[in-house]
Amino acid sequence: MGAEQPYEMVVGLEVHIQLNTKSKLFSSDSTVFGADANSLTNEVSLAHPGTLPVLNKQAVKLAIKLGLACNSEIAKEMYFDRKHYFYPDSPLGYQITQQNKPVCLGGYVSIPFKNQEKKVVLEKIHLEADAGKSIHDQSDKYSLIDLNRAGMPLLELVTKPVLESPEEVGIFINEIQKIVRFLDVSDGNMEEGSLRCDANISLKRKSDTQLGQKVEIKNMNSTRNVRKALVYEYERQSEILNTGGRVVGESRLFNVNNGRTEDMREKEEAHDYRYFPDPDLAPFVVSEEMLEKIESKMILLPFDLRKLFVEEYRLSPKEALIIADNKITAKLIIDLVEAGIPADLAGKWLAGPVKALINQSDLLFSLDSKELASLVTLVNENKITYTNAINKVLPELVKSVGIETSKLVAEMNLTVDDDESSLSGIIDGILINHPEEVEAYKNGKKVLLQLFMGQVMKQTQGKADPKITMKLIKDKIG
């Protein structure tokens, strides 16, 4: 996609989010991930005659939660519809969804793009039941059906066609993933199918106001694949238009093996599904009490946190983006600032070594903000070196919940050595053993200072006071 291309990309997304409920949307089946095939089914999810759906109220609460986070209008009364289509992994022969009265209408999500916040306008967020999963045999002789996923509670978040590049689309999906995790609406694990999306892409000339023919790319479960699919589809449609052809409205699949989108079927319209209100489900009324209770438990989200960290904490946009990435670092920096740690210093710790440890330990990460504040203070007061703090003490604080930082530093014998006489003797020995390097330093190779510093730190196990050590080395070399 070169800068001089004559066409602009316009994308709308349908993001499917599996909700964090213990049971399915209309039945009591468990929603646990990774169970044996077809073990999470009962009479309702298998559509046995005479069975009736019962709405999971928790799913509605989570839907409202996400709607509030996305600045949507919450429906006072919602309905469910039947979307008719035949597919082997759908026992009912239709999907229960919300076509006409969704739980959340409109709204927007702010994403960080090119050092600014862009509002991505939403059309709606609605509840629906997931279908099962078809597993196609590699020999093309068989297709197997796993109905564990049938009836899983989904939210479908639908944007307006306002996204304009694969990069922007990727940032938006990542932002939705952060929001649902902050709210505990979903685990957002794309690799497990908890968050996946369909992308509707059309091309138009830059001077045109009307959008081109829409093509849908379905069922993508990684941000990387979504971006790659959009890049390929842009090139494919551009070539068709450049040669005088006509883009066909259709649904396509992205082949991860060859990096191409492939024809799936003609794109259906709403009337093809024969929507009508589900006669087995009564309208659900959202009471003021229920709405107020959910609103009272809302927390600061990534957008609010980025704004707080930049405007009040005076962090750089990059640091704010990193720290607002998850609830752990966001809570820690707020706690550190409240404990009296300067915001800029707290930001460097959270965006640096703490974030690195979180990336290594993923969701198992646990760190007491009081003990982290104690460690930052000890480094700031020159009682322990920064190197020992992040390499030796910090990992132990994560592993050993409940241990005190001061006791840990004492037990590990990491208190800074600021005894000039002992350091002087160590430095003398190092300089004697490196005569060529000393001479090179005298002749202008100042980078060798780091070599001498490293040798001192090695012999003192990182406990030497850096400032005193550096001064002594410079004085001795002259």
Major beta-sheet overview: 10 strands, mixed
Give the quaternary arrangement of the chains.
Answer: single chain
Structure annotation, total helices? 15
The averaged pLDDT comes out at 89
| Overall structural domain count | 3
Write the layout of secondary structure elements.
Blueprint: E1 7-18, H1 57-69, E2 73-74, E3 77-78, E4 81-84, E5 94-97, E6 104-105, E7 108-113, E8 116-129, E9 133-136, E10 143-146, E11 153-159, H2 166-182, E12 195-205, E13 215-220, H3 223-242, E14 250-255, E15 260-266, E16 276-277, E17 284-285, H4 288-296, H5 302-311, H6 317-323, H7 327-338, H8 343-361, H9 369-380, H10 386-399, H11 405-411, H12 420-432, H13 435-442, H14 449-459, H15 466-477
Parallel strand pairs: 13-14
Antiparallel strand pairs: 1-11, 1-12, 2-6, 3-17, 4-5, 4-16, 6-8, 7-8, 8-11, 9-10, 12-13, 14-15
How is this structure best described in words?
38% of the residues lie in helices and 20% in strands. Strands 1, 2, 6, 7, 8, 11, 12, 13, 14 and 15 form a ten-stranded mixed β-sheet that branches. The mean pLDDT is 89. Strand 14 and strand 15 form a beta hairpin. It has three domains: 286 residues, no CATH class; 101 residues, no CATH class; 58 residues, Arc Repressor Mutant, subunit A, CATH 1.10.10.410. The protein has 478 residues and is α+β, with helices and mostly antiparallel strands. It starts with 6 loop residues before the first strand and ends with a helix.
